[in-house]
Amino acid sequence: MNDYSKLIFEKSFVNGEWINESDSKFEVINPFDLSVIGQVYNDDRLLVKKAIDVAHSAFKTWKKTSVKERSILMMKWYDLIMQNKIEIATIMTLESGKPFAESLGEIDYGANYIQWFAEEAKRNYGDVIPGFTSEKRIMVLKEPVGVVGAITPWNFPIAMITRKIAPALAVGCTVVIRPSEETPLTALAINYLAHEAGFPKGVINTVVGTNASEMGKELCENSKVSKISFTGSTTVGKILMQQCSDSLKKLSLELGGNAPFIVFEDADLDLAVKGAISGKFRFSGQTCVCVNRILVQENVYDTFVEKFTAAAKNLKLGNGLDSETQIGPLINQKAIERMNEMIQDAISKGGEIKLGGNFVTPQFFEPTIIANANSEMLFAKNEIFGPIAPIFKFKTEEEAIEMANDTIYGLASYFYTKDLNRTWRVREALEYGIVGINDGLISSEMVPFGGVKQSGQGREGSKYGMDYYLDLKYICIGNVE
């Protein structure tokens, strides 16, 4: 076992120091066996306010650093994360239950955002516009918005942080991070490594605590914060949006999803099965772009169900630290109760369980396949966030599109076909921010990530990702002779 304990910390990190305002602690639980990994000081709104004050002060000097300086620091941070990859992945697996191989993959994915935006920092170009009269000269500059509040979920405890703060740091913003209380240890570890890389005090601050509503409210209502970036439920996103309204903060919101996975009759079924397995069961179905509804054309429905069921039978449940594990535990009791509710609802409405449907232990739920799914079932409209795969039947392309779009959400979608014309028709008809065609793995630091409708607003990652941390300043120089 590697010495991951060197990266376990019990306090928030503010102004370059480990600090706590509260004397109480909360336990960080391993969802595999419910053992206590560690105890962390349970801070709240008071320390968030102090962190904002610190970040606001640090912004005055950080924004003046050269892009080359910021880029060098970010690359040092990237290198330190990669050097401690095994240790961070171990911590992540312990506190989230994620299979170790997936944790390692997330370290790469999350660190790549730092590397990408370290490079993009040098390409934060402005513009020169021809004057609208002969004696005027026009310029457009891009300037950092200020202090950024990053509120992140438990399912990607490094990538959701780096995807938000890497572009912020690259353009000259300072940040206050409020990570999930389910997975605070990964966040504290990478903040420590940022400090070791040489980031000035106050530029990156992480405050941990269980009072999410009050901590979030401080970030949203404090006038010294200029932008909020949040990943989480649509319900909470709407609350944050309301709380930000008085100060008209910039917002990036990546919210709920209900991803359709459409299999047309001309699809390569083996390829579709492979995509559905990875898209549905990665991290036990607990990701924002997970396949939520599998829609299969009637001519190939039975064949697909048979092949998909056979493939899912081979998935191995277990401890995330076991190299053979593919399905880990669900994150908490609330998730377990949601799976049970959805199974009972599906059975009562005519669903046929082809595989699974049971709890292996109080923490584990079997990969589950439900045939004969219909629009009356809970998962037709709601995000599952677990290892349940409902399979719906459709007749025509038009019906598939209607079914896919019949949701308030619009984050990720997928479809499989060999028909080139169909790829154009369907991708344009799907009301989603992300469309995967014949591929279930669509995440990368190089692409714009985000949704439409009630899946949020704004984009993270890619060359577009920095735009949401910048203000445009128009400069008009007159009387030039």
Automatic annotation (TrEMBL):
Species: Paenimyroides tangerinum
Keyword Oxidoreductase: yes
Domain Aldehyde dehydrogenase: 18-474
Active site: 254
UniProt cross-references to Pfam families, sorted A to Z: Aldedh
Domain of life, per lineage: Bacteria
InterPro entries associated with the record: Ald_DH/histidinol_DH, Ald_DH_C, Ald_DH_CS_CYS, Ald_DH_CS_GLU, Ald_DH_N, Aldehyde_DH_dom, Aldehyde_DH_Superfamily, Succ_semiAld_DH
Family in the record: Belongs to the aldehyde dehydrogenase family.
Record-given protein name: NAD-dependent succinate-semialdehyde dehydrogenase
Key words, A-Z: Oxidoreductase
Listed GO biological process terms: gamma-aminobutyric acid catabolic process
Keyword Glycosyltransferase belongs to the record: no
GO molecular-function terms, A-Z: succinate-semialdehyde dehydrogenase (NAD+) activity
